[in-house]
């Protein structure tokens, strides 16, 4: 069963966003979702929050939480009940959670309670998840009625002493509960002297509504008051009640009885609930609004004597609302929304001040001219084919114009007429075109001003579903006209590449799509869009050898569209045979000329008409055609008599944005700049904007808002040059961009350093831009192995960059030996001079720096620089806790020489830690200096406790033979300043209070996983207790948001024991999987399986044991002990010479 999800819960947080409280929202941290359903009447959600317990949400609005519900339930119930002299019969309308009923039954006089709620789901769900509220619904005094409250009230006139309405907010069906007919029914259903209370909204948000309610109820009841309570999880932390009585002169603020068992309500609170803050009292009693005026209201006061600007908005499509909202921010503006369908125009303008709607057919020239002439400016957001007619009407009426579309030849031909009329016609001011122009002009002008040249200009933009919403076969959903989207795929394209003009026919366009890298989080493809060649002139970059403006889609999209094109489904010509009597399969048969409408015949014909790169791709695309329904037996519903529009109708149903889904707009300019000194740099300007699941789409906002801004600037006279204009100049671009950035829609501008090059991907031409990086952090055995593996297979497409904090490769296995035996310490630190000599020349590089933190697509170093990555491998291992520090060879070799000297001087040496490092150190000391007294202290009962107890027995036998003493099962208290090192005797304190006397302590414990750099990118991937990095079986980190980040070796929680051999196996799996991801073969990823733990453990100069744990829980371990004779002293270096020869061949100076 799939985990529960809900549109209002994103990234573990519930968000309550509503037009009822614009500009503010409530958020709660969600532990888990408990219940989601669509009842007959509303959306029902229950989740467990981190700080408020279980939370009931109806239609996206919090109804109650376990933590604070009592402050609402007690007040809405006790205010009317405790001001009534003898309430016996009580009706609760709404309140299916049971909280009000619980409070009603606290009154001893109450004999009967009826709960009337229209939605049984609320009652059912509350019984399961809010039992402390709903438990008394089963009381014998309570009757639950599932039905319409209006009907129930009408059937029970003069019945109840108190009626309590626990309603939701006044939107949708609940709006009727705030209107006069409902209050009249309440009045009539009351017995003589009866009281009511209803949910009365918030003083801070709905004061005018509250004033209307009180005035209206005073026309029905002799007594009507407003009271309020505080509750943290309701909007603005406050909610009120309209409390009324049939009894003339009743003081509703006076409690008549003492109540116990309450958490919020008491006598004083009852009385004070009716005492309002001054701004509320004045409005309700005197009708004056004394609240401060700001924003639009303040502007309205300031502009009271200014002439009104009249704007005509043509169109009611996806992008029009953000444009309209921006325009009416200025109270001097009056907006008329015109659409052929009046209802659509009204819907677009709903809730907007200074707005009206009208029906207008732009094909009627007289009507169009009349409306355009009656306004100061017209915004044309209708299909571009109508723009010329609109502009002609504007020229006649001397009305300014704004559009978001490209300037067509028909529009450009009107330039002189527009100038003669003195009007500005501002075009291309949406997203693309629009925002893209603003930042292209900015960067190009800045580069030219500094003496630089634009060698390459690449600009790609895509309107896409957000990654989590892109699961259909095309990886696409429609945020604007489906027909426009598909027709754009048939446009021919022209652009410059390396000084040559390339022209692509529309039918071939999808074949020119290429993978395009922006960040590792996205698998984009890019293809050219329309004619980019004029932009060398438009943008004043004659020096540019490459100029491409294009479109971004997710990988897999072009291949799918190419098949639709090849099969004829994007044909807009009328087909007289396309009738409703045909099935989709029969339409497909006729379209492609198949032998029959059977699925097998259709697939065979498709494979004969289309070329697929391999069988798996053919299967993917044909499965997608089946998903669309092109093989189905359902009857087709032709649209416009052609295949294109009929397909559009089908896709619109399948590929629409569902509730809670969001879109993504990605726009990036890439400038390859050559400076006067010949140095080249890559500059980028990037917009990554996401739509709101409960607000505007990113596409609507990024098109509509720039259009609205340009409109206001034209109205203000900032943009005034007459004629056909486009945002290609500083004078136009700068003021629009400044306001756009203030609105939060600016592009992020970066300089790509030399180590951060990314592919520029010029379609249809081999790109000569530098290759993207695969970064490996940690250059020990495991990290070095990854570099070797990747550089051999991926050097043609990627740079392999090793980030290593240490100056030299550290042969860690030799450290116990060089701690004891002089003469080898310099060989344990191998220079990186020629470490990856087997790799192709130029394919690898080493950066000596500390990786401070990892961010999406880049590693931030301790020197302030950053390194970009397409893929990242963490092989940082373990080390001392705290901030990473680098080490230099001279410092480390001195440390070991000092330790050798201390060992030589001491007669009693204690090794703290009974792992491999401690055991090898202790055995080497006894072999090197048998007279030394050596003690090993270990915190656990067994040495090498990760392994089968047999290994402990083997080591203990060796210790006994060598005369090494042990203290097991005791933790050591290590001083913060460390143990003394002056040769005198001191005591080591143990956990049981005893002490061990010694002259030298060698600490061989305390290493922790070096996972801290990953916390900035993905804190959830680091275990908070162990600090190991959580990984998937593919060795990708556990956070699915970053499939390009891997962790291996000792820092990763792979299930394997911490040793070099498993790390090497992990290096192979990670390297293979990176290669498969780069090649798009996601299904070929390998899984890492942890092998049975084993180890090769040196036990002094001449002895070694190879040990492996049992392969089954009940099995026996295997081991083999070996004797190692040394012919010369040089053979005692614990493998230093071999490692040196492998990592630094040809280098003979061991002090380097």
From TrEMBL:
InterPro entries assigned: AASS, FAD/NAD-bd_sf, FAD/NAD-binding_dom, NAD(P)-bd_dom_sf, PABS, PABS_CS, Sacchrp_dh-like_C, Sacchrp_dh_NADP-bd
Keywords of this entry: Amino-acid biosynthesis, Lysine biosynthesis, NADP, Oxidoreductase, Polyamine biosynthesis, Transferase
Organism for this UniProt entry: Armillaria borealis
Family as reported in the entry's similarity comment: Belongs to the spermidine/spermine synthase family. Belongs to the saccharopine dehydrogenase family.
Chain ranges passing through the membrane: none
GO cellular component: cytoplasm
Biological pathway: Amino-acid biosynthesis; L-lysine biosynthesis via AAA pathway; L-lysine from L-alpha-aminoadipate (fungal route): step 2/3
Catalysed transformations (reactions): L-saccharopine + NADP(+) + H2O = (S)-2-amino-6-oxohexanoate + L-glutamate + NADPH + H(+)
Active site: 166 (proton acceptor)
KW Ion transport (keyword) present: no
Protein's UniProt name: Saccharopine dehydrogenase [NADP(+), L-glutamate-forming]
Gene Ontology molecular function: saccharopine dehydrogenase (NADP+, L-glutamate-forming) activity; transferase activity, transferring alkyl or aryl (other than methyl) groups
Top-rank taxon, per record: Eukaryota
GO BP annotations listed: lysine biosynthetic process via aminoadipic acid; pantothenate biosynthetic process; polyamine biosynthetic process
Keyword NADP: yes
SUPFAM superfamilies: FAD/NAD(P)-binding domain, Glyceraldehyde-3-phosphate dehydrogenase-like, C-terminal domain, NAD(P)-binding Rossmann-fold domains, S-adenosyl-L-methionine-dependent methyltransferases
EC class (word): oxidoreductase
Documented EC number(s): 1.5.1.10
Domain PABS per the UniProt entry, residue ranges: 11-246
